[in-house]
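lol ok so funny story. i was supposed to be doing the assay writeup but got distracted and ended up predicting the structure for this chain instead. priorities right. anyway since i did it might as well share w the group, maybe its usefull for someone
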Amino acid sequence: MNLHPLEYFVKLAQTKNYTKAAKECFISQPALSRAISDLESKMGYNLFERTSRSVELTKEGELALPYAKKILSTREQMFRELQQYKENNKKAIRVGYVIYGYLAIINQRISEKAKINEISLDPIYDTVANTCKNLYEDEIDVALLPQIPDGDFSNHCAKDNQIESQTLLPSKLHVLVHKDNKLFRKKSVTFSDLRGQQFIGWHPEDVPVLSDCHLKVLKNHKVIEEYTDYCRKLGDLMTLCILKKAVGVVSKGIAPSEINEFRSIEIEDSEEKFGVNLVWKKDNATAQIKRLLEVAKQ
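and the output, tada:
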């Protein structure tokens, strides 16, 4: 992309002096003169009126000058944006991963897909509350969060409708059941099947809104009024289910296949609003984040 002749044209129009223009363009005066003559020849117009004392733009030169400046400015803008795109692609995306049940499995899958597609990630693990706070304060770029019914993250993740989200994995509500429980062999259950069961919930300090949402759903279907106990990790949930002879509330199948003592069972009459969302701020939707979204949806 040789735009040097246009650069020389603009510089000569500014300085009105061949010697000075050549010096500022870091070329010899004869080379500048040849370049201007070649440009005029290609355009079919004289751009300058030359006398022994001065160099002035012709009418054609005055008409061409703003276009030459615009072309050079557009080139500079193109290079800046290309460089910015290159830097954004080099920079690792800071992903907020939540320490919550089955999301550990989803987190791993997202990381593996990103690696295959040569997307660099910087994973940051925390609670839902802290992950939402980190997203709003720009400590992370995107977050993988449990879906809230109605999809409204603005009330606990950010303010002023600054958040966008994409559901990656829709899911109905599930229960985690130990093998000694009579529900263990069922392929699915209904809310009426769950009446009389004790329930372990996720600790509200770690999973705000979602923990209350699970309880609200169970209350509305007259299953329980309160949780028997709370857990913070999947291992704790399994232990409490055994000790308390209870079931756990989850948002998707979370029991690893090698753990035969537990099953995650879908509540068939629940709504499909308990999946996983990829969440980011509207003003931070870079090309790299959009690419991660496409990869995560595969």
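Residues 174-267 form a domain with the D-Maltodextrin-Binding Protein; domain 2 fold (CATH 3.40.190.10). The chain has ten helices and 13 strands.
back to the writeup now i swear
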